[in-house]
Description:
Number of strands: 8
Largest sheet: 8 strands, mixed
CATH topology: Rossmann fold
Structural class: alpha/beta
Radius of gyration: 17 Å
Order of helices and strands: EEEHHEHHEHEHHEHEHH
Helix content: 40-55%
Strand order of the largest sheet: 1-2-4-3-5-6-7-8
Amino acid sequence: MLKRLRTRAYELDVRVLGRELPVRVWSPREGELPLLVVHDGPEYDRLARLTRYARAIIEEEAVSPFRLALLPPGDRNEWYSASANYGRSLCRQIIPAIAERVDVAGRPVGMGASLGALAMLQAQRAWPGTFTGLFLQSGSFFVPRFDRHESGFRRYGRIVRNVRSVLRATRHEDPIPVAMTCGAAEENVHNNRLMAGALLTQGYGASLAETAGGHDFPSWRDALHPHLTLLLASAWPPR
C-alpha cells in the first residue's frame, strides 16, 4: 500500500495562445513517473473523481504509479474544436513545460471527453511521437450524416473537415493504442463507431466500449474502470 498520495500545483512559466495556463499536477510520490495528460482536468477531477480513481488503481497495483496533469480548458470551444494552433501548443509548449517541472518517464497518455477527446486526437495526428496512448470518451467527431443538428456551433465546419480527413486516411505514421468509450444511447455513438473503425483500419490498436449513461461526467467516471485501467496497464505495466 502506498503512503498517502499528494496533490501539488504547478504554475507553468509559459503563455499558451495568449494566456497563462495553470496546470495542477497530481502525484503519488517523487521521482520519475509516467504522465496522464487530461483535457478538462479540473472538471474531470471534481465531477468524475479522477484523482480518487487514480489513487485506487495505483494502491491496488493494477497500474504502475503515474502522475496526472489536469489541464484547464481555457477557451474550450475554440481550443478543443480541432484547432491546429492549440494542438501545436499542447505538444510543443504545454507537455514540454510540464516535463521541465517534474520527472516524466517516456511519452504521456492523453485523455479527454467530448470536444476534449477530439482535441487529443487532433494533436496526436498532427504531432506524431508525442503520445503513447489515448483515452477518448464520447468524442465529438462530427459528421454531417449524424450531426447536422450541431451545425450552429461556430467551429462545426472545422471539426467536420478534421474528422473527414481522419476517416478518409488509409494509414498514419504513429498508430498508437486508443481506448474509446461512449454511451450506447448517446447521439455521439454513431460518429464514435465510425472513428473507431477508421482508426482500426489505419493500424491503431483502437477499441470502442459502448456503455450505460449519457454525455456527462458521472457517466464518464463510471467508464474509467476497466477501460482506462486496461489502457494504462498496457502502457505502463505494473512493477
